Amino acid sequence: MPSLGSRALLDTTDGDTPNLRMPVRMLSVDTPEVTARTEERAHEMDQNFQQLATWIRDGQAPIDARLAEFMLPKLETGKAGTLQFEQGQAASAFAKQNMEDRLLRPDGTKRNLFIRIADAPFDGNSRLLAYLAPNFSRAELAQLSREQRATFNLDLVAAGHAAPFVIYPSIPSAPDLALLIRRAAEARAALRGIWSQPVTLLAYEYRAMEKLFHITRKKVSDQPQEPDSLFTWRERYCADVTTRVLHDPDDYFTVQPEHRLWIWPQDLSEAVPRLNLTPSPRLAAAE
Questions:
Q1: DSSP H or E segment with residue 70
Q2: What is d(CA 63, CA 251) in angstroms, rounded to the nearest whole number?
Q3: Closest by alpha carbon to 128, among 7, 284, 276?
Q4: Could you tell me the CA-to-CA distances from 13 to 18, 114, 198, 281 in Å, in that order?
């Protein structure tokens, strides 16, 4: 467990039972970012992404040509940052209200929260990695379908407020993964939430393009940086869960959003044989 650091100690029920406030990163989903914090900063991101698009068209950004072609329509809208911020606020509002609604029992009392953590319980930012859901009784669970007892994670995807974001090795069980894929595909087909805008930057794309902007800005202004740092903005490999084909980080966009399984480079040697993955022809040629 990471150090408490700046997190608040809420209270102590007795000498050996402190209650702590801790951030949780919900597994397998990715909602739009609100890191801009303000509308003014979101407008600055609009301008940054337009500048990035110019650098890409001028051949100054370290990005593959096919991925650049895919990203440019999203970057050149003049509202990429603002749209991300607005969608992030909508996702946050939905999550809060959805939790309030689903934790409320018919008699008006509140349920406890069910938390299922990952095998590796914390991420690099000391957030607890978990699935969250209402804590139903055994009797209730016996009467509920898998969809009726869905996690709050799945609710975000089904409502179109989050893209699926499954990262190896934290892969849901086969039935839960199938449900996640189906609900994500339904949300995308119905143009719900983030899918209503074809130029939406998915949250992981937004973070990558933000990193690429800073890297390219240093590059065009001749600021010193390590050669290897030019490509740190695209680190994860992507496998298609329907075909078991492994794609280079630059080619993730060739896989449907709901079928993407993300794999960190350090996990490749384990994931490839364990999941029976086959490198794509383009990836095999590159190696």
A1: helix 65-75
A2: 11
A3: 7
A4: 6, 21, 51, 60
Tokens 């449907």 correspond to what residue? 256
Q: Pull the structure tokens for residue 52.
A: 């990035």
Q: Is the Cβ–Cβ distance between 114 and 102 less than 8 Å?
A: no
- Return per-residue pLDDT of the chain as tens, 287 residues: 555 566 666 777 787 888 777 889 999 999 999 998 999 999 999 999 999 999 999 999 999 999 999 999 999 999 999 999 999 999 999 999 999 999 999 899 999 999 999 888 888 888 899 999 999 999 999 999 988 999 999 999 999 999 999 999 999 999 999 999 999 999 999 999 999 999 999 999 999 999 999 999 999 999 988 888 899 999 899 999 999 999 999 999 999 999 999 999 999 999 999 999 999 999 998 76
Q: Write down the domain spans for the chain.
A: 22-153+204-213
CA dihedral sign, ordered 150, 24, 164, 236: negative
Positive or negative CA dihedral for 257, 43, 208, 153? negative
Q: Which two tokens stand for residue 202?
A: 């998915």
Q: Residue 285 forms beta bridges with which residues?
A: none
